[in-house]
# Entry
Amino acid sequence: MDIINILPDSVANQIAAGEVVDRPASAVKELLENAMDAGATALQLIVKDAGRTLIQVVDNGSGMSDIDARLCFERHATSKIRRADDLFAIRTMGFRGEALASIAAVAQVELKTRQHDNELGTQVVIEGSDVKSQTPCTCPCGTSIAVKNLFYNIPARRNFLKKDSIEFSHIEEIFRRVALANYKTAFSFHHNGKLLYDLRPGNFAQRIAAIFGTGFNQRLYQIEEQTEPVKIFGYVGKAEFVKRSRGEQYLFVNGRFIKHPGLSAAIERAYNELIPERTYPAYFVLLDVDPQRLDVNIHPTKTEVRFIDEQTIFAILRAATKKALGQYSLASEIEFDTPAELDLSPAPKDFIPSQPTVPFNPFYNPFGNSAPQSRKQTSSLKDELGHFFDSAPTDSDYANKASGMTENVQPRPQADIVASRSSTTVPISYQGRYIITTMKSGIVIIDQQRAHERILYERLLAQRARGGVAQQLLFPVNCRFNAADSEMLGELLPDLKLLGFVVEPLSQNTFVVTATPSGVSADELQMLLEQTISEYKNNMMQRFSERDKSICASLARQMSVRQGTTLKAEEMQQLIADLFSCQAPNISPSGRRTMFIVSDNDIADGLKG
# Structure
């Protein structure tokens, strides 16, 4: 009995759609790239309900004839290639001939198109690969494709879509990629009737600023290199604006956004010894490579490519990035209105330079006027922590603020691993990262940044429970975000208000901050809010996370003392005292260890023999 069958076209198209169109953002990508291949100079993206209800792309490109309007929905129908050799000379975005067929297999599609030399256009209506009608119509020159009710005939696939805010963020990311690569083209983006982007043609820097905010260009250095294997142009981020997530990293080859771990590493390695560990710079880099020396046909989404000269391009890209970082960072320190000669004359014989100082009050308590701890709890902590509490100010009550929290935490260190009572013990700072001090039965090594994160995290949670204590800013600060981040920030405003932030919408994608929690610098507000939004989105996408704790953890991470900061003795003592006043002093908010204990027995065993 024969058991092998030829699949019907409708089923084969649905299978192919699973490779090409797995979510609304995939359909957006294919439609935008098709519009660019048609030579469009102006393009509109219209989306409803994060792509579930409608995805429409309208362009002023070349349009299609009656026959092409019907053939474009057939599998492997393409105008880009004629023979196999053409695969190695591709400069268009699409070439497989699978996109429209895959989209039409899982949605209701309406196509209107007209060539510039025709008076009438063509309308094609398709549902689930079934052509319902093809009729003449009046329409503007170019093409309009409306994709309605995506996955209407595959309920299981539709049920696996994430909530609208997540699906929209994927769509916006695709839009940014296409708009960045085609900065000479006008783009507009509407979501649920609201205009989010209205991008005018310009240069690459202007397009970056239009998408990420006018002040974003101040965070970038230009990178440019012309060589035989590759031509490089773009911008890389300044070291002081790195983030803890790979958000604003865009790498393009011949106008196509790509993901290439090797080339990304080439850029990031240029920042070695310039940025802290596990932080990532922004970059927007355009590469121009001979199409015959790369292969873009290795993945259906075409975001992965192979290079013949990969090692050479890696070295050139890394060198060009290092050159930009060195050249422009030095130039930015020079006043160009002053004479070019630098004053390198020696200082007078008796000149004694003054040591720079940073005002710091280790005893400052932003939570004053709160109820004291119970005598039993205070006595217990002093018994555990010894001289750290003896040297700390008596009105330090950060532990009171966290004592009412119900977070599930690990138990505090027992008496055999807590601080020694010796009043002569002074903590030591090591590498500007660790604090080393003695305990009753050995030595404790504390990661100062993780410890500070734990302290700030519990303070923020306690402050949130009390409703937030805001510190009015002398001058309000305006912060501008991209469309998706603006929408996300709007959702987070009630949570931020409970933490002491007073943030209000000012205009499209712009917010004004009039008050912050104590200790937040006005100069860092833009970066602080950007990173909070970014980390919150990552937390909600990667794992189930409680909203309030996710926001507090993100803020604590950004406000904590940085690695490489050498603290004074009294600052280290205060940090240790505050740490052991926490509910969970031995773990950071992200679950990483804040301290490492070396017991007396470990030391003795290590010195045996």
